[in-house]
Design a protein that fits this description.
By secondary structure, this protein is of the alpha+beta class. 23% of the residues lie in helices and 12% in strands. The N and C termini lie far apart (63 Å).
Amino acid sequence: MGRSVKKGAYVEPSLQVKIDALNAKNEKKVFKTWSRRSTITPDFIGHTLAVHNGNKFIPVYITENMVGHKLGEFAPTRIFRGHGSHVEKVAAAAAAAGPGGGPGSGPPK
């Protein structure tokens, strides 16, 4: 369930203070944040935030299409490296078969 419209979007107060200060100075500077739960507001547009993903900081450039989403959506926490080692098994089988190939590698009959 989402947050009440009456309450408005949640933005970490310290993050909002930093964004307001940068907007007042008309400055574009990258700064780190751990607040993945903060909602992106129109004030954030044009800034680059380094969002922590649990391991390192991922630079996220805020565009107009991101307004209303959470910062954490743009800094993935998991890295997909593929299912099993299917490619390695195929390569190992081809190497074990030798230069002639495996069974059925000749011309069709």
